[in-house]
Write a structure and sequence with these properties.
Elements: E1 2-6, H1 11-15, H2 28-44, E2 52-55, H3 59-72, E3 76-78, H4 95-101, H5 121-133, E4 143-147, H6 149-160, H7 164-168, E5 176-181, E6 184-189
Parallel strand pairs: 1-4, 2-3, 2-4
Antiparallel strand pairs: 1-5, 5-6
């Protein structure tokens, strides 16, 4: 089983700035979201030991993973394959700025993969498939993965063999956990935080 988590809200999320491989700290809300996810995962895992917490190396994911690791009594591991998609030249830019300059790239599914010098959809799929293949088989998997919005979408899409359109249209909440088990995906919402 894999529990997939997106990091809590960041300063860049609040400003509607694309992050990609650029990092931004969690907001106070983001810290509370990370703590709520950690409490939910503690309940979901019923205090069982042996869970691995694997995080993207970016600080926003790592900070969220540390809350989870503390709740589960697990050391946080890093895996670069869980990193967010790179928007290349668009990393760190305001979305409103980019929408004005490149209206043709926004408003349709899959826009995140149209950025100049950015990472392709196929490349992200390949690294997510590689990560999944490196894990123990089900049902021995006991993994909590902490990743990002677009990377998490692609990971779920690869896991469930979704089409590209279905993959990129999925929700990317910061206050929920996705359970990936037996080829199925289930969303589990956290307690509301404000």
């Amino acid at each position: 089983m894999i529990y997939l988590v997106r990091h809590g809200q960041t300063e860049f999320n609040r400003a509607r700035r694309l992050q990609g491989h650029v990092d931004s700290p969690l907001t106070d809300l983001g810290v509370r979201q990370a703590q709520a996810v950690a409490r939910l995962l503690k309940d979901l895992t019923r205090g069982e030991t042996g869970w691995r917490v694997i995080s993207s190396p970016l600080g926003r994911a790592r900070r969220t993973a540390e809350s989870v690791g503390e709740a589960l009594g697990a050391k946080v591991e890093e895996d670069a394959r869980l990193i967010e998609v790179s928007w290349g030249d668009w990393d760190g830019r305001l979305r409103s700025e980019l929408e004005a300059a490149h209206p043709e790239a926004f408003g349709r599914s899959g826009w995140a993969f149209d950025a100049p010098t950015g990472e392709s959809y196929e490349a992200v799929c390949a690294r997510m498939a590689d990560w999944l293949e490196s894990l123990p088989p089900e049902p021995e998997r006991r993994i909590v993965a902490v990743s990002h919005g677009v990377a998490g979408r692609v990971l779920r899409g690869v896991y469930a063999q979704m089409t590209r359109d279905r993959t990129v249209e999925q929700d990317v909440p910061q206050d929920a956990v996705y359970r990936l088990s037996g080829g199925a995906i289930a969303r589990i919402d956290c307690e509301p935080v404000a």
